[in-house]
Amino acid sequence: MNQAVATSMPVAPGRDAAAEVARVADAVRRRVLAYTLKNNGGYLSQACSSAETLATLYLRVMRLGESTAPLVPRPFAGVPGPNNPHAFTGADYNGPRAPDLDRFIFSPVHYALVLYSVLIALGRLGPNGLDAFNQDGSTVELIGAEHSPGHEVTAGSLAQALSQAGGIALARKLKGETGRVWVFMSDGEFQEGQTWEAVAALAHHRIGNLGVYIDANAQQCDGAMTDVMTIEPLAARLRAFGADVHEVDGHDSDALAAPAQGFGSGDRPLAVIARTDPCRGMELMRERTPKLHYLRFKSEAEIRAYEAQLAAMDAAAAEDRA
After folding, report:
1. Which domain does 75 fall in, by range?
2. Burial (CB count <10 Å: 0-12, 13-18, 19+), residue 237
3. Would 86 be classed as within a structural domain?
């Protein structure tokens, strides 16, 4: 098992944390591209933009215990209910709940394959854990839910997760727990009123044990966010609502990790706006700009081009391992 997940600390002392994040991010993009080819479509741009952010969260920011879930996910056990204790199994991949350990709430559930790929790269989910991806009866869903690996709550429609995370963080604060709550969000969720109500509530209740990382890739289902409904200036708006805000390069692990250092003892929620490139490492996708939300191949020639891209990425990874 990867040493980084064998303890509650993100990265073992003495390891090159930024290099480890880069390795995981590259592996995530390769795996998501492979499954996009296999399924003739997928949320590929989300892997391009968020891979470093998610890898940094797991390796350098969050204090998580070892996974308590099977390497091959369980089948779907049914909808939540008082007599179904196996309905909420996704968070098991993030380790046990304990007062001193962090909790992770994953908001943009259409990024699910990206999260599964991170879990595989870290040894929390087995490589064959994706054999049942997007199949009926599987928990490894295209759009994640509370039973999907790495997911603690059902977060769609988008923008519901921050409110749920706020309730968890408030409860932890009242109990005197030292563990923090981390939320990963997409920038499009800041077009939703519920998100801003949640931020206002976090500030009002002085929820200083909740941190949000935002994948600000500036694109959404209908195209560029500036063409659909702008959210800028996002940093200024979040500060006006009472958050402690940092804007960083979302592909720079050191910059991503820095705002979280020492976080958890204050009285303001943390918001890290990670400015990212939805075509990072996948130049072929720029031809589709700004319609990048879901990639579906249009021709055999395009499939061949992306297969060549995957082969080149695999060769580069093999060379790095040699």
Report:
1. 16-321
2. middle
3. yes
